User: What shape does this take?
Amino acid sequence: MKQIRYILFWITAFSLFFSSGPSAAGIATDETGRRVTVPDDPRRVVSFAPSITEIIFALGREDRLKGVSRFSDFPPEATRLPSVGSYIRLDLEKIVALRPDLCFATKDGNPKHVVTRLSALGIPVYVVNPKNLEAVMTTIHRIGGVLNAGPKADAIIQQMHTRISRVRSMVAKASTRPRVFFQIEISPIVSVGESTLINELIEIAGGINLAKGPTPYPRFSREQVLALAPEVLIITSMARGGRFEAVKREWGRWPSIPAVRNHRILMVDSNLFDRPSPRLVDALEILARLIHPGLFEGEK
Amino acid sequence: MDLKRPLLLRRLSMVSLLLLFLLIAALFLGISIGSTGSGIGQGLATLFDGKDADAMGHTIIWQIRFPRVLLAILVGGTLSLGGLVFQALLRNPLAEPYILGISSGSGIGAIIGILAGFSRFPGVSATAFAGSMGTLLLLFVMSSGQAMLKKDTLLLSGVMVNAFCAALIMFLMSVTQDSRLHNIIFWLMGDLSTADLHQVGILAAVLIPGFVLLFCLSNAMNLLLMGRELAQTMGLNIKAATVTLLVATSFMVSLTVANCGPIGFVGLVMPHVLRLAFGPDHRILVPASILGGGTYMVLCDLLARTLPDQGEMPAGVITAMIGVPLFIILLKKSGR
Assistant: This one.
C-alpha cells in the first residue's frame, strides 16, 4: 500500500510540474483573457504590429517570422519580410496566404473583427496588451514563453530593469523636476496624458508632464501652451517631414516660453517613443539626458 | 400587374438573362482575383478540385472572397433599387437612397456604437441601423399626414435632416482623439471587407423578399411617375403604395448601410444608366437594377481591392470615378 502511495505521489508531482509550466504547449490565455490554442513549436509566425516585430527579433526568433505589419521597420531586416497590411487595416487574404500557425496581435489598434475571423478560420491569434513599461516586460516574457525563448526573454527583461533603475537613481540626484511639454502633433497641437507610455517615461526621466490628465491625447491651443510655460519642449518626428525646423521657428516667435528662451526645443524619433518594445528603454535614456543634461555630462 | 403580355415578358427575360450572365461573370472575376492574386486559372480549379487540392487557396477564395462578392451583389442591388424607387417616389432624377437622411443617420448611430466600444457586428451594425431608423422616424413626424404625399415636403425635410446629421457627425469626429477615430473614418468611407458567410446569409434572407416585394410594386412606380391624378384614375391607392415603397426601401437601404457603411453614387447613377439602356418601364428596371447594380458593385469592389499597391481604396471612390464617365458617355449617346 505504501509503495502505491509513493508511486502515486510522484506521478502527481510530475504531472503538476509539467502542467504548471509556461504557455509553451496546448491552451494558453493571452493578455486579454482569451484562450488560444498555441502550437508547441510555432514555425510560421505573423506579427500584426511593429512593436511585436521588434520583440520577436530581439528574442532571436526572426527565423520563425513569416509576415509583418506594414510599418515594421526595425530592425532593417524586418522590411524584407512580406507585409500583411497596416496594423489598423490588416489584409485577411495576405495573412491566410502565409499559412501561419500563430499570429500575434495587439489589443490597441488591431481591428477586432480580423482577430475573430482568423480564429474562426482555425488560425490562433495571441493578443498582447503592453500599455505601460511593466506590461511591455510582461509581454516580452509571454511572447518569449510562447516562442520557446524564455531565457532570452528573461535576459532582455533583466537588462531593461537594470537600465531603468540606473536612470531612476541618476535622476533622484537632480534638484529640480523641469516642466516638460511633449508635442506629438503639429496642427492641432497634441500632447500626451496619463495613460500613455510617453507620460510614464517623462515621469521616470525626472520631468513633469504638463499635459498630464485623464485625456490620453489632449489638444492644446498655442495660448494654453504659453500659459503652461514649459521649460523643455520636445517634439516627436511623427509630426513628420523635415518640418522640425519650421515648427521650431514657429515656437521661436513666443520667447516668453522658458523653453524657447533657453533654446530647449528638441526633436526625438517617434518610433522609439510610441512603440511598446525593448527600445522604450533607449527612449527613456534619451529623455533623461534631454531633461537633465547636467546629470549625464561626461557619460558616453 | 399584367405580365402576360408576351412582348413585356420577352424583354424582361432578355434583359434579365443578359444581366444575370454579366453578374455571374463578375462573380467569377471577383472570387478569382484578390490581393494574393490567385488568378483566374486557380479560380476555375477550386470549383472542380474541391477542398483537398489547395486548402489555403480554397479558404481564401470561398471563406474570404466569396462572402465579400456576395455582399457586394446584395449591396449594389439594394442601393441601385433604392435609387430607382426614390427617383420614382419623389419624381426627382437627383434622388438617391441616402436622400432622406439614411446615411447620415446611420453614421451617427455607428459613431455612437464605435465610441461605446462595440465590435463591428452585431454591435455597431445595430446602432447604425437604429440611427437610420431614428432619422426616418423623425422625418415622418416632420412631414406627417397629407404633407408626406407632396413630394417636395419629403425631399426638403430629408435634405434638412441630412445636413443636421452631417454636422453632428463632424462634431463627433472632432472630439474623438484616440484610435477610435480611425474606425470611425473607415466606417464612413464604406467597407465591404468585414463580410462573412453568416452575416451575408442573414442579409440575403431579409433583402431577397424585399426585392420580390418591390418587383410586385414596379407597375405602381410606373403609375406614380405619371402624376397623382392619372395614377388615381388608373386605380392605384397612392397612399398605400407610397408608404409601402418608402418603408420597405428605407428598411432595406438602412440594413445595407448598417452593415457596410455608406457607399455612395451607385444608387444615383445606376438607375439612370439602366434607364438609358433599357427604357423607363419599372417592371424591367427593377430586376435590371438588382442585377446591374450588383454587377457594378462587384466590379468596383474588385478594382478597389486590387488597384492600390498596399491596402485597398474605399469602394465609394471607384463607384464615382467609373460611374461618372460611364454616365456622361451614355448621356451623350442618347442625344439628350
